[in-house]
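Thread title: Can someone regenerate the structure for this chain?

I was given the following input by a collaborator and told the matching structure tokens would be attached. They weren't. Posting the sequence so someone can regenerate them.
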Amino acid sequence: MMGLWDRFKLLFKIKTSSALDEMENPVEVLDYAYNQQEEFLRTVKRGLVDVATAKQQLKQQTNKLDNKIPQLELQASNAIGAGREDLARIALNRKQVALVELEGLESQLAELELEEQRMIAAEQEISQRVSSFRTHRQAMVARYSAAEAQVRTREALSGVSGELGELSMALGRAEEKTDRMLARASALDALVTGGSLEMTVGPGSDMVENELRKLAASAAIEQELTALKSSQHVQQRAEPKDQPLVLEMESIAIDTPAEE
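Best answer:
Regenerated them for you:
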């Protein structure tokens, strides 16, 4: 079983790795690696210059010893000719010391030449690697920039960002509401055209009630006409002189139901 402290350390590593991954910029990493390689190449070149300088100094020392040895031999020969064996011994001793020094210088010079050749080969190899890495870095930076542009474009087009997502949802709701309103208008138009909807007066009125009202009104009109007819007959009997007028009123009363 994983203890509490172990779980805490694991969670800390996960969070730290995630945070570092978000902070890490591939372009900056490539630039840093390229700068490090260039710095290493400059170090190799400085070392190559130092080796060449030391090699030149050894050559100068070797040349001096090469020129000194014949002089010592000449001194020893002159000392023997002058009967000074002690001086000749000193000159020959110096010659031996010079020969030993010359041998050491030649050995060091040979080592420096080998080191110079190795450093020249290393400098050429590193230069080639730096040049290749430079080309690779430029290609990687271009690819990374293109990938960033593609991601931004995809986010803009697909509405991944919050603003575009909300706008898309609002447009969807507006389109849905418009479709509902159009469908309702079409349904109402169909009902009006089919006669299912009619203008009514008063609350709760419908077609049946309207028809009953029409029948009641017709009945009331008939009753009034009948009453008028009865009244006209009574007047006609009472006043015979006004017969033409009564006949005219009866004609009007008779024609009125027909117009209704």
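Helices lie at 4-23, 26-81, 85-158, 162-193, 207-238, 243-259.
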